[in-house]
Amino acid sequence: MCGAFDDHPTLAAEAPLVTAHNPAAALFDPDCRSWPFRSAEKPHPIKAEGSAPIVVVGSTGDAATPYAWSERLAGSLAQGVLLTREGEGHTAYGRSACIRDAVHSYLVDGTVPAAGTRCATDPAR
Q1: 10 Å Cβ neighbour count for 70?
Q2: Are strands 54-61 and 80-88 parallel, antiparallel or unpaired?
Q3: Cα separation of 95 and 100, whole Å?
Q4: Which of 3, 44, 95, 119 is least surrounded by Cβ atoms within 10 Å, i.e. has the fewest?
Q5: CA-derived radius of gyration, the chain
Q6: What is the DSSP string of 48-104?
Q7: 86 phi and psi, to 5 degrees?
Q8: Phi-psi region of 16 (alpha: psi -120 to 50; beta: other; left: phi over 0)
Q9: pTM summary value
Q10: Do 89 and 124 contact (CB within 8 A), yes or no?
């Protein structure tokens, strides 16, 4: 996590290096460019060979994390499964009961969504 814990004193005390990070910047720094520590490892594809299935959730109309990224990530993983929410807006979990049910089944029971599963966005309340 790239955010700080200034509003959580216990976490701040337990994570002094993280607290030096600007919490507001975390919202505009999703790839942690301002994080003060660097890795010697270069970015590279991760296939997660030998892993259990990894469910990637993507939304077709998400401008912040384009659907093509979800497709590419799921396709690059040895056991990647793409779960799709049809609709506009960032994130899928809070916008679709179908997505929530599929994620719960995966996390609680280990049931992997069928390949090609697509879910509708819930009607506006």
Answers
A1: 22
A2: parallel
A3: 9
A4: 44
A5: 17
A6: -TTPPPEEEEEEEE-SSS-HHHHHHHHHHSTTEEEEEEEEESS-SGGG-HHHHHHHH
A7: -80, 120
A8: alpha
A9: 0.70
A10: no
pLDDT in tens, the chain (125 residues): 444 444 455 555 555 554 455 555 555 566 666 777 777 888 888 899 999 999 999 999 999 899 999 999 999 999 999 999 999 999 999 999 999 999 999 999 999 999 999 999 999 86
Q: Which amino acid is at 10?
A: T
Residue that the structure tokens 């679709």 belong to: 96
Paired tokens of 35: 């994080």
Q: What are phi and psi of 54, to 5 degrees?
A: -115, 120
